[in-house]
Amino acid sequence: MGLKSYPRVYFELLLSAFMLIMGMSLASTFLPLFAYDLDPVGFLVGFVSSAWFFSRIFTELPSGILADTLGRRKLLIGGLVLSAVGAFLCSMADRIHILILGRALWGLGTGLFFMSSSATVFDLFKSSDRGQALGTFQALEFIGSFIGAPIGSFMVGFMGYRGVFLASCGFMVCSSLTAFFSRELRQMDLKSTRPTRSTLDLTDVLPRFKNWGLTAIYINSFSSMLIWAGITGTVFPLYLNLDLGINVELIGIIISIRTLGMIFATAISGRLSDAFGRKPMILLGMSLEAGCLYAYTSTSSLEMILLIGLIEGSGCGMVLTSSMVLLSEVVPQQSRGSAIGMYRTFMDVGGFVGPLFFMMVFDSFGSYTTFLTAVATIVLTITLVLPVKAPDSS
Predict the structure, then answer these.
(1) Are 42 and 359 contacting, i.e. CB atoms less than 8 angstroms apart?
(2) Closest Cα partner for 108 from 125, 129, 87?
(3) Three-class SS state of 209
(4) CB 68 within 8 A of CB 85
(5) Which end of the chain is more exposed for a tag (fewer CB within 10 A), N or C?
(6) Which domain holds residue 311?
(7) C-alpha to C-alpha distance for 137 and 151, rounded to whole angstroms
């Protein structure tokens, strides 16, 4: 199925997601440094990243249920508005506690958007095309992150941290307006079939040993975000700046190159998972991530760090796309929003715990032990995913 045959609403969602990701990524390279400047206490610096996920832990599953019963559009637009409010609060932060509050609202808003948009993409395509559709969607939206990270790091020099947050807020507002005025999204929401109370069965999406495949997907979601938020989003920029002496502008380029790897992987892994299966792509992606996290500790060469970041981002992209598509295939269609809500709840718990846990290890034992701990976490997750029997995606 080619891009020309995709429905228009797919591209409208993509435009909203692109602007949201672009706004998010503007602050990604300097956020831990800004938090460190406001208050150098390691726990609070970690909580700035964790707050992004804390508010979502308790709302993902209810919002997934609401997306199944009330429709995707309302939650999608509401999430974009909350993201704009959160970014604005971050721009006003003169104490780390205000920054934490802004990040909490911002994270809640993006969670609502991505849960609703993912469910919408799953609704638009049949199983045989879903991997390619989601992979293309994620690859194109991540271009916003690829562009935004280095731009944000250079904007700091003439706008300051607060000015960059205001620019992020502007992107969120544009994204909200794009979704709000989408006629096709409104029509799709009106035409969708809402599950009745008798057809909405939460037992289909709850983790349990009798459905180890679904449970392993949830555990993998937790582990992936534990590493992503704790290492990539918090410890890694501090490691590059404090241990290796790399400035903010170069950190932005490193993060951008890592995102380039994610763009490449999400673009091809969806199609490959359609052809060869979801599980092989998930295992390959996790193996690449583990190897690269260890490799970071063995070099101080900027060129090697860029190469490792490109490969690590590719592994992350493989896991992200294939896991989400696999999830959509192990639950009934009428419970898909609820399953995504549960999946993202596990993801949010990982995102909340990760920065706090890995900053504690970083402060107590240094960067080498921190990265080794992350590698061990991925290896453990691989052993849990190996027994999973993936359903036929054909």
Answers:
(1) yes
(2) 87
(3) helix
(4) no
(5) C
(6) 8-190+206-385
(7) 22
- pTM (predicted TM-score): 0.69
Question: What span, in angstroms and rounded, lies between the C-alpha atoms of 60 and 341?
Answer: 5
Beta carbons of 44 and 95 less than 8 angstroms apart? no
Tell me how far apart the alpha carbons of residues 272 and 204 are, in angstroms, rounded to a whole number. Answer: 27
Given pLDDT bands bounded at 50, 70 and 90, which one contains residue 193? low
Q: Please indicate, yes or no, if residue 210 is contained in any of the structural domains.
A: yes
**391 domain-assigned:** no
Residue matched to tokens 């993902």: 60
Contacts of 320 (CB under 8 A, 6+ apart): 138, 224, 262, 266, 285
DSSP annotation of 203 reads G
Q: How big is the CA angle at 134 (ends 5 and 74), to the nearest 5 degrees?
A: 90
| Amino acid in the structure at residue 166 | L
CATH number at residue 268: 1.20.1250.20
Q: Could you read off the pLDDT of 200-230 as tens digits, one per residue?
A: 455 666 666 667 777 888 899 999 999 988 9
Structure-token pair, residue 209: 């040993």
**Quick check: 82 and 52 in contact, CB under 8 A?**
no
- State the Cα–Cα distance between residues 160 and 145, nearest whole angstrom: 19
Residue 278 domain-assigned (yes or no): yes
CB count in 10 Å sphere of residue 11: 15
Place of tokens 């797919």: 10
Query: What value does the mean pLDDT take over residues 104-121?
Result: 83
Domain count, the chain: 1
Cβ neighbours, 10 Å, residue 126:
9
Number of Cβ within 10 Å of residue 321's Cβ equals 32
